[in-house]
Each structure stands twice: as C-alpha cells, then as structure tokens.
Amino acid sequence: MSKNSNIRLDVWLYLLFIPAGYITYLFHESGHWLVGELLGNEMVFTLNGVWPAAGHYIDSSHALYVYLGGPVCTILQSVIVLLVIGWSGSMYAYPFVFFPVFTRFFSLLLGGFDKQDEAKIAALLDVGPYTIALIVLFVLLVILLWSGYKLRIGLKYNFYSMAVSTACLLMVIQTDKLI
User: Fold this and answer.
1) Structural domain that includes position 81
2) What is the total count of domains within the chain?
3) Are 177 and 127 in contact (CB under 8 A)?
4) Tens digit of each residue's pLDDT (9 = 90 or more) over 126-146
C-alpha cells in the first residue's frame, strides 16, 4: 500500500469517529428509553439524556432497569462491532468499538461520577460506588483489545483515536445543548 493510500485510510478512519460518536450516544440513550417505555413509562429522549416525562417512574424499581439499559446497549454495540470485525476484518468498524470505551471512561472520569449510570446502578444495588463502572469498563476494554488485536492496531493509532474521540465527544455534547 502506498503512503498516500495510508494517509487516505487514516483520514477516513478518523472521520468515522464523528458518526461513531453520535451513534454511540444514540444507542446508549435508546437503551434507557426502550427499557423505560417497555416498563410503561412515557420517556423523554435527547441525544445525551432520557428521563420519565412525568418526572418520576410508575414504580420506583424502574429506575434501576432504566439506568441499566444504557450501559447494556453500549456493551451490545461493542459486541456487535466485534462480530463485524471478526467477520469482515474491516478497519472501518474500529471507531465504533473504540468510542464506547472512550465515552464511558471520559464520562466517568470527567463527567461527574455520581451523575453517571454506573454510579446510580451501584447505589441502587448497594455495592461499592465504582463496582459497576469497573465491570462495564472492563468488558468494553476486553472487547476493544480483542478488536485491536484482530485488526493489528497499535498504541500509536489508539493515542490518535483518543484525541479524535475527545473532539467528537465535545461535538456530541455541544449538539445536545443546541437542540
């Protein structure tokens, strides 16, 4: 492959982080929304949040299930992408498995931990505050590492991916504020 081909591949891969960011957020929030709706709650959906339209759930136990819906869908997205990578070997799938790990890590580290799904789940289950967050991050990280191994992605590409993901994450958050 020529050097120009590598540059074009890199540009396309990095540009894919933009839709990967939006899709990851939509998929995550859709998990909350779907669980809430299936439990009979009328839910309000935005790009970066879901809540019951009434201001409370029909049953207080619904909160746990709705909080679980987002992380479960994020893990599901990563598993699906891992299967696509295993089947196709496509580098173009990688942003869609990288961004879920990055967004959960970023949200937990800088998004106000006590406001995140994993912290709320841990509180409702009365387990250590970081227990659920570490489990979710571990599962996502194993999927990411396996994907990187299958695609022979090195550390250098992952560092670049973190920088691009930061910009995309900020883009998604800003878009949510505008709508």
Assistant:
1) 3-174
2) 1
3) no
4) 999 999 999 999 999 999 999
Q: In this structure, what is the dihedral angle of CA atoms 73, 79, 83, 88, given to the nearest 10 degrees?
A: 80
Residue type, 14: Y
Q: Is residue 156 part of a domain?
A: yes
Structural domain includes residue 67:
yes
155-178 and 3-15 helices, crossing angle to 10°: 40
Give the pTM.
0.90
Q: What percent of the chain has pLDDT over 90?
A: 76
Tell me the average pLDDT across 6-31.
Answer: 87
- What is d(CA 76, CA 27) in angstroms, rounded to the nearest whole number? 9
Q: Is residue 75 part of a domain?
A: yes
- The more confident residue out of 156 and 72 is 72
Q: Is the pLDDT of residue 1 over 50?
A: no
Which residue is associated with the tokens 């696509």?
A: 84
Is residue 49 in a domain?
yes
Say how far apart CA 132 and CA 77 lie, in whole Å: 18
Dist CA 14 CA 165 (whole Å): 9
> Distance between CA 123 and CA 6 in Å, rounded?
47
Strand partners for 46: 49
Q: Which two tokens stand for residue 22?
A: 């939006």
